[in-house]
């Protein structure tokens, strides 16, 4: 089964992936809104 030692590392990895994903989504939405206002 899983060891307890890997749990904090997995949680940190998941958090960083979600943070990067959130940044990408915010950038995409802001670029999309800028494009829609220019058109």
From TrEMBL:
Transmembrane intervals: 12-36
Q: List UniProt keywords, sorted A-Z.
A: Membrane, Transmembrane, Transmembrane helix
The protein's name in its UniProt record:
Cytochrome c oxidase subunit 2A
Species per Swiss-Prot/TrEMBL record? Halobacillus andaensis
